[in-house]
Design goal:
Layout lengths: L2 H12 L10 E2 L4 E5 L2 E6 L4 E8 L2 E11 L2 E6 L7 E5 L2 H7 E8 L5 E12 L7 H15 L17 H8 L7 H13 L6
Antiparallel strand pairs: 1-4, 2-3, 3-7, 4-5, 5-6, 5-9, 6-7, 8-9
Bound molecules: heme C (HEC).
Keywords: Signal
Protein name: Molybdopterin-containing oxidoreductase III, DMSO/TMAO/BSO reductase family, monoheme c-type cytochrome
Organism: Malaciobacter marinus
């Protein structure tokens, strides 16, 4: 067992840190991203992140995802599954915030960049208890979407189909933006092709 694994194990046994498995951390609320004090975009609720460092109420996170070379503003889960992780106000902010790890070409000849970036956000924007947040997302979905018809199975649609389904439902349902984002992310993370 490596030193890092050993110390993580020790920490989790001692219960010293709630971030024993850093890659299991998730964003608690849609949160603005800043660079040199400038508001450059946001990261979405329920986006998985690595916690790199915690200090004085702040947390440094690493975000990994994919973006289109021709439209770098959006950071998505991967080439096939277009779950939104982060969105920037312009190309420059995206290009300055993320570094390209690898380039890929999809079936349509579009070039994708596999990217990662490091940001500092308030500690309160990381879910202390990811399971609790995920349960809340599930309950919100169940309560909001079972009034008029049976609750649709989350795997009835794909990651890319769900946002469209929710949009088409907006003629019938009023959801505040927070609830809508939470439900979209929940459904995308439990969609037919989410695993
Ligand atoms: C105010 C009532 C109401 C609420 C609340 C509601 N729906 Fe619907 N939903 C409808 C109606 C009406 C239809 C259309 C039924 C049809 O045409 O078969 C529908 C159809 C659907 C369909 C099926 C579309 C298809 O092509 O078969 C899906 C998926 C769906 N809703 C998802 C949701 C989700 C997700 C939510 C929660 C955000 C939700 N609905 C909340 C009224 C509602």
């Amino acid at each position: 067992m490596g030193i890092l694994k050993k110390s993580l194990l020790l920490l989790s046994i001692l219960g010293v840190t709630s971030f024993a498995l850093a890659q299991d951390s998730v964003i608690k609320e849609r949160t603005k991203l800043f660079k040199n004090g400038k508001d450059i975009g946001f990261i979405t609720i329920l986006t998985p992140v690595d916690v790199v460092k915690k200090q004085a109420g702040k947390v440094t996170i690493k975000v990994k995802g994919y973006r289109l070379e021709n439209y770098p503003q959006m950071i998505l889960r991967d080439i096939k599954r277009k779950e939104l992780y982060a969105e920037f106000k312009d190309e420059k902010s995206s290009n300055e915030s993320f570094k390209t790890v690898k380039k890929h070409e999809d079936d349509y000849g579009e070039i994708w960049h596999e990217v990662e970036g490091v940001f500092t956000i308030d500690l309160k924007n990381i879910a202390k208890n990811p399971d609790k947040l995920k349960l809340k997302a599930k309950k919100t979905y169940e309560q909001s979407c079972s009034m008029c018809h049976h609750l649709p199975a989350s795997n009835a649609y794909t990651v890319n189909q769900w946002p469209q389904q929710i949009e088409s439902m907006m003629e019938q349902v009023t959801l505040d933006p927070h609830t809508k984002n939470l439900i979209i992310k929940y459904l995308q993370q439990h969609a037919a092709d989410s695993k």
